[in-house]
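Deviations from the work plan: none for this task. Representative record:
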Amino acid sequence: MNLRESYFKDRRVLITGGLGFIGSNLARRLLGLGAQVTLVDSLIPEYGGNLFNIEDIRQRAEVNISDVRDPYAMRQHVRGKDLLFNLAGQTSHLDSMREPEADLEINCKAQLSILETCRHENPAIRIVFAGTRQVYGKPDYLPVDEAHPVRPVDVNGINKAAGEMYHLLYCSTHGIPCCVLRLTNTYGPRMRVKDARQTFLGVWLRRIIEQQPIQVFGDGSQRRDFNYVDDVVEAMLLAASSDKAVGRIYNLGGAEVVSLNQLASLMIEVNGGGKQELLPFAEELKRIDIGDYYGDFRKIEAELGWRPTVSLREGLRRSLDYYRQHQKPYWG
Amino acid sequence: MNLRESYFKDRRVLITGGLGFIGSNLARRLLGLGAQVTLVDSLIPEYGGNLFNIEDIRQRAEVNISDVRDPYAMRQHVRGKDLLFNLAGQTSHLDSMREPEADLEINCKAQLSILETCRHENPAIRIVFAGTRQVYGKPDYLPVDEAHPVRPVDVNGINKAAGEMYHLLYCSTHGIPCCVLRLTNTYGPRMRVKDARQTFLGVWLRRIIEQQPIQVFGDGSQRRDFNYVDDVVEAMLLAASSDKAVGRIYNLGGAEVVSLNQLASLMIEVNGGGKQELLPFAEELKRIDIGDYYGDFRKIEAELGWRPTVSLREGLRRSLDYYRQHQKPYWG
């Protein structure tokens, strides 16, 4: 890693989705680097925001409960900021199919609104946008690099694709310096575990701690990659502080590729016990399943020097430790 | 062409944007084939709808002035229909940059709403969606085929890309039989000529008839392809009546590729007189300019047997004849 940590000292930073999983971990790291951090979050119950996520840093960050779809509030937040980590979003694939218009509102319309606000109020603001591997849909080849066609298989993927295109457009035509990271499955402390809205892995963590069997849908042979949240936070800091990241799209990705069965076994091993069971795919899940996926992250490695440093085993250990200590705020 | 004309006899057909340029020409052709045609149009002044476009067929078609963003009205319209030609949209690139949220409402949100309505009310309806070459942005290579990356350079292109992805998704996951045509510059009778919102060519037609110089922006060397509207209508009928078109994206494209200077000269020749002048690109146009563009239409030719049949010379002649006869309803 070649992160210029001093870059963040005294920077005024806005994080949308700041009470969420990645946003709150990022906020903690930024505060450690001496940044002035403002967190915006709507705390919509189905999303990832959770006040407990920032309990230990609440006195040091400015917290504003508001919706990024509110252009008047956003105008205030954007003014005078140096950096915007734009993480607010709806992440559930299934929810996006059931309520496509709500997904469009947050992942598409709100993004355009945020960018319009930046354009009018603060066009020099550096933006890092949290995109998703979901834009690729069912891979043509593996590992998936950034040149892979964008061909989403659910409404969430389409709206997230539009969201990242808006960012790159406002970069190229209005000069707002933006970078898009396409995240793969991210896990770790402060993720939502009460349901599968932030990947199935959250539910697995909860169930194994509850001494219930881990439920694997399908035959468990689907392969995936995973990033521990601290590695994603480092990628975001690199993207925000590197001039060559402007106007670029980068995949993140895991160094280890595992099948769901292997992941379940590893989790049981790290946990020191537990069970897994195979369940048939629900029809609505099967329709939007993408089969195997893992990402090629050589571009961000070559250009920004990022690569994941936390092994799956270590990341699972830390995650299990965290949720064993803090069940109540996350079990819901 | 291998159009099964009998396919359309007594079919119940809905056309959104039905009072617009392509919609009204399509309606006339469908009525000639014995279809029962319902036209929906919002008649928003900046869009292409014009009651004069259907003056000669008004008694034979059902006309409903309403907005496709109105889910209650759309529910009524979609019920009992066999075919939907989904042509309603905002087409101006510049307007999309000035008012991005309005473009999102019509090209993105309304499309999702229409598809949700079809899913709930009439999932067997066959849909042809009017996409655009604008989704490709600045070409990596020429002619541009359907495998070219989707990388729009304006808000309109992004929202139209989302619109077509929604259609293909509702086809693959909800079984609604959809086909996407990516149109290039389309011209002919009943297009908007009062301004450049439906390509610059409309304005050129108006100006040459007004005996004003044709204004070419830039150095006039940019190459483009064009389709006469009757050819586009045939492509839509083929797409609606061919089973193999379901779930597919097809480029349309012109058989002749010309520079803007060549096009202006040809128009002056066909008109029997006129002038052209070069003007510098306005800054906001330059930013979203795509340079040369022409489309590869071999896929639709191979699969559906479509190719353009009206030469540019003949198409321009028919267009000039039309607007010489009907200035008042179009000059605005």
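The domain at 8-188+227-254+294-309 of chain B is CATH 3.40.50.720 (Rossmann fold).
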